[in-house]
Batch of 2 targets.
Target 1
Amino acid sequence: MGGLGPIGRSPGYARLLAAQTISPLGDAMATTALILHLQQTLGTPTSVGLLLFAQAIPPVAAPFAGAIADRVRPARLLGAGLLVQAVLAGILSLRLPSLGPLLAIVFLLALVDTPLGAAVGRCIPFVVADEDLVAANTLRGGMRELGAVLGPPLAGLIFATSGARLVLGVDAVTFLLAVPLVLGLPAARSAPEAHLSSAPTFLRDVRRGLSFVARTPSLLAIAAGFWVVVFFTAPDDLILPFLARTTFRSGPVGVGVLLAAASVGLLVGLPLVGPLGRRLGATTAIVAGFAVMATGNLFTAAAPWLAAAFAAQMIRGLAIPLADSHVATHIQRAVPPQLLGRVLSNIYGGVAVAAALGYLVGGPVLHATSPRTSLVIVGCGGLIGTLACAALLRRSRRPMP
């Protein structure tokens, strides 16, 4: 049992990990199917950018979502959220509406999901020991990305033969399968469930979560650097389908394979997270991860073939778990348990908003330039963000005068 790490030592974590594997598989399939559907029916980068924007913008409500995550028992919040998402995905599958209603439903799916990520991150320190925290966060990220590896190629195959509706139906089923896995999760010992109807107390909780990030130099440095890096690197999800289709003349399967490349690299990089983190230290590992992610996009811009672009995106993916696992672990160790849901939601919600803004800008940039030029822009911007993050972290370690 010990050889399985946190999975063997914590049945609760094993169930949580299973849920974090099943549901993201359906999400990755659904996103790929919707991208292919919009490419086929509308054919414009702007429509795909609006889709990704609709998915990414709901976390602007992260301060409120984090307060909910700190107040409601994780099992209850996750179970209810997954059921609502199953209903919404089912509506998409049955109706497959025009662009406006489609974007509205995608927005609602992401809005429901906003407090769920904070609930999962808040729950992990209560189901694993502290010495297992880095490994638990790494495995969570890896299994979540396993869906991103398998989902796009599977969605491309199903879309090519049966269209988008069947893929979206699979997404609805994955939400339902995840529900029983989260129902037995323990409540946080330090934060009993409260009534959401107490508006003054709720708003005070929201402000406390925001002020804690603003007043903690290391958290503010990591958050600000993370947001800048993501603003520049997120649009590669928008650019890659057009690189595959217009530059390399690939079909739906080629698009799915290229979109999965970074996730393949992520899985390959999982065993390196622990050793590199111990050698570099947490904050250096975060900065190094950001730098490699940006450089991978520059390599992709120079790739002469689809296979070379796949390899470059794999290099980018190698660094994702190094950065993300150490960001999450630093937050979990630095923040009091009663504030953890809010801080996680605020920082990762900011990441999602930065991604949304990147998608919003990335569509017109791609339309005005080309996939290769757009990748050069996002790669250089990611490196600038990495330098900014390193500078902010260095400043946060200076003693106050």
Target 2
Amino acid sequence: MSVIMDGRILSDSLTKIGLNEEWLNSKLKKLGTSTDRIYLAQVDSQNKLYLDPFDDNMRKH
């Protein structure tokens, strides 16, 4: 389930999966990032967080 989109926390989505903004911010802090740097973040059924940052340093070919 998406929990961040365009740098904004989707609080309703977090609530639906039994998590909260404190949990999310804690995970982001451990990874050295913040919501405003994340384009899309998703949480899977085992509460694993997947991030797609705005600047993912991809090289153009």
